[in-house]
Each structure stands twice: as C-alpha cells, then as structure tokens.
Amino acid sequence: MSRPVQAGDFHIRPAAHSDLPALLALYRHLNADDPEIAPDIAANRFAEITAHPGMTVLIGTSGEALTSSVTLVVIPNLTRSGTPYALIENVVTHAQYRKRGHARALIRHAFASAWHQGCYKVMLLTGSKDPATLTFYEGCGFTQNKTGFQIRRPSGV
C-alpha cells in the first residue's frame, strides 16, 4: 500500500530521494541534539532504507512542505504461522504543523499498509513520558500492554 493518499491539501506517500534534504530538516524536530549527518552518508543510508525489503519511510506533505514522517518496517517471522509483524519508528511532525492530525493520518496509513502486508501486529516504542504523547498514541489505537526493553551500544564499541 504505497500509493499516495490525499486529504485536502495533506498528502501521504513514500519518501523519494529528492525528499531527503527536507526529511533531514524534519528530523531536527524529532532529535534536535543529534549530530547532523553528512550528506553523502545520508544519501547512502536513504538508498539502503529504500532498497530494504519491507522498509518504507512515509511522508506527509501540505502544499510544498514536508510536514510529518513515520518509518514502517515489516518483518518476516517464523512464529504465528509465518505471519509478519511491523514496527513504527521515527514519528515526527514539524513544530508548525502539530495538532492538525498529520502524524495520526500517517500512523493510520502505516497500519493499513501493515495489515495489507499480512502483519498480525504493529509495535511502537516511545521514550517519551509526556502524558500528551502517550495519550496521542493510545488515540491512534495502540495499547500500552507490554514491557519494552532496550540496550544502547556502549561508547567505544
């Protein structure tokens, strides 16, 4: 389900290479303190992402502005009779476009794509403790009923 979706002047579609500069600028609204990625590394990573089976960066645009994005990863599985599952990551909306339903529309589009690809579940982790963020994800249909764990690579490794 990678066909474009349109609602008013808001459009959803997979990101293209030509979207990369705007996408990188949008990601500054997600993690403003992240070091900037070199343009050649960004281009290589984006090429890897778009070539990776089951991985899609969905973008929302309003007019010419890239307003929001989510990454959907569909993962093959050997349990659940081989039924795949999906992860949503890097949910971000430009600060000037928040509270307009853009991220919610992208998440719903990602759900539809995951269901179309036969996924039995979609997972999302957030590091946010902000009640508004948690309420937002619940309003999108997620339930907070599992315990998530992560480990970060130690420095120097």
Write structural notes for this entry.
- The protein has 157 residues and is α+β, with helices and mostly antiparallel strands.
- Helices cover 29% and strands 25% of the residues.
- The chain has a six-stranded mixed beta sheet, with helices on both faces.
- The longest helix has 15 residues, at 102-116.
- The protein is globular, with a radius of gyration of 16 Å.
- The mean pLDDT is 92.
Percent of residues in beta strands: 15-25%
Which residues sit in consecutive blocks of at least 5 with pLDDT less than 50?
none
Q: Kindly report how far apart the N and C termini lie.
A: 39 Å
User: What spatial order of strands do you see in the largest sheet?
Assistant: 1-2-3-4-5-6
Alpha carbon gyration radius = 16 Å
Beta-strand segment tally? 6
